[in-house]
Amino acid sequence: ISLQNAWQKQPHRAYLRHDSVWTEALPPFLLQDQHRHLSSVAYEYSKETWKMGAELGQQALSTQNQLHLSDTLSIFTERSFSERLVGTFRQEGLVYADQDVALADRFASHLGARYEIRERLWLNVSESLRYSGTNSTQIGLRTSLDNSTQVYANERFSMQQGRMLQTTVFGAESELGEKS
Length: 180
Prior knowledge:
By secondary structure, this protein is mostly beta strands. It contains no helices and eleven strands. A hairpin with a 2-residue loop joins strand 1 and strand 2 (about 10-25).
């Protein structure tokens, strides 16, 4: 579930966002159910072919017996290379995390691209690299149902505990508010 409420006056945009993910355990890969909630506030500045901004968020990850909290600060940029091709970059760091999170796991870089296959249908590809060396690759499709609602399907590939983990994600995003 993803909800977003935005204020916009070109070239500025500020928004609040909340994402929730519920994951059911599928042994032997995931040993327990997980629930993740992310709330954030962000600011974007955009001009003709590029956009840049910053986002501050808090994540709560709960498992059967534990609650893990973290605060993240991200900076990001996008650049349109053509009407159909957009490149993206995001650098994030954990401002606060539980003590058991290693220093190298507190920083990540994300590089990606979106290509419009046909009107309102985008192919997304991205690579994420944690400074600890953990990579994650994602490929997916996204489409708009209307001006404020999008649906997506992604396939994620990552290494966890020395094993390749493949995750299929289906989701939707909706902006709230009359002028969002």
